[in-house]
Design goal:
Radius of gyration: 23 Å
CATH class of the largest domain: Alpha Beta
Low-confidence stretches: 273-277, 279-287
Number of domains: 3
CATH topology of the largest domain: Rossmann fold
Number of helices: 13
Mean pLDDT: 89
Order of helices and strands: HHHHEHEHHEHHEHEHHEEH
Structural class: alpha/beta
Distance between the termini: 70 Å
Length: about 290
């Protein structure tokens, strides 16, 4: 049975299914966010005009809202709603093509490990997709010190905040106070689960050679799911937490790679810089 789990997990059919469904479900959620954004803007226009009429004694609200419907037709959300309906239909088609899974597949425990700093919709999308591999999700999370040792930078969100952000999407969590997660993962996985093949490991495909992969792959199947494009903690960190205004502006309007990292015109990643590496800061220092 364990060999069958590995075979199915590595099959082209299953991998195509996972990547197609994850990509479509992620796109559907993005469309939902856009539709919510449109509704928020329509409400804002209406309330601002209502307040304006009240303060000035005018009665222009209804006329302006009609004018907006003509000049900003996209606000009605019809195009996005139709697109979402098509995506929903495609998800149904993909689900119909789901491969036959071995007995016990959906009863497995699914393990994953991450840092989950600046928790965003990319993290949410990956964690929700892990339900395709089993019913019980166990997530390991690096503490603040091991995060610093791994990435040579401090977290924006402390450990307690990161745990609170992740817990709604998983069933159980454990903390990893080391750059080497092997020992802590081994302590969470029972010999019985390994022997029965009732566990697996899954994560986003942005780090194929993740720490501890050799041991993990020796005792359980490893699965990867596609990350959410143009969405990353690095991008958020650069825009909102860089000490360099020039770098913040560049990141906010920069192109992004598949992994969501902001890049310059030559394709080089825009990294968080120390203050002295920022042109504006260097100007202040030199003056």
């Amino acid at each position: 049975l364990k060999d069958e789990y590995r075979r199915v997990g590595k099959s082209k059919h299953f991998q195509n299914f996972i990547y197609a469904k994850k990509s479509l479900v992620t796109f559907e959620r993005e469309l939902d966010l856009l539709l919510e954004f449109l509704d928020l803007n329509k409400m804002a226009f209406s309330k601002i005009l209502k307040k304006f009429d009240k303060v000035t004694g005018s009665m222009m609200r209804e006329d302006k809202l009609e004018e907006l419907k003509e000049t900003h037709a996209f606000l009605d959300g019809v195009v996005l709603s139709e697109m979402k309906d098509r995506v929903t239909s495609m998800i149904d088609e993909v689900n119909a093509l789901k491969p036959t899974l071995p007995e016990g597949w959906e009863e497995r425990k699914v393990y994953t490990i991450g840092c989950f700093d600046l928790f965003h919709r990319g993290h949410q999308n990956v964690l929700m997709s892990l339900r395709e591999f089993g019913y019980f999700i166990v997530a390991g999370i690096h503490d603040d010190e091991s995060y610093f040792q791994l990435k040579n930078k401090y977290t924006i969100d402390n450990l307690e905040t990161r745990i609170k952000n992740v817990k709604p999407f998983v069933d159980q969590m454990f903390v990893i106070p080391s750059t080497k997660p092997d020992l802590y993962l081994k302590s969470m996985v029972s010999d019985q689960d390994i022997e029965m093949g009732s566990c697996c490991y899954a994560r986003g495909d942005d780090m194929l050679n993740f720490p501890g992969r050799d041991w993990v792959e020796s005792v359980m199947p490893v699965h990867f799911v596609p990350r959410t494009e143009s969405c990353s903690s690095t991008l958020i960190r650069t825009i909102y937490h860089s000490d360099c205004k020039d770098l913040q502006a560049k990141a906010a309007f920069a192109k992004t790679r598949y992994d969501g990292k902001p890049v310059d015109e030559d394709g080089n990643v825009l990294k968080l810089s120390k203050v002295l590496s920022c042109p504006a800061a260097m100007h202040v220092k030199n003056s």
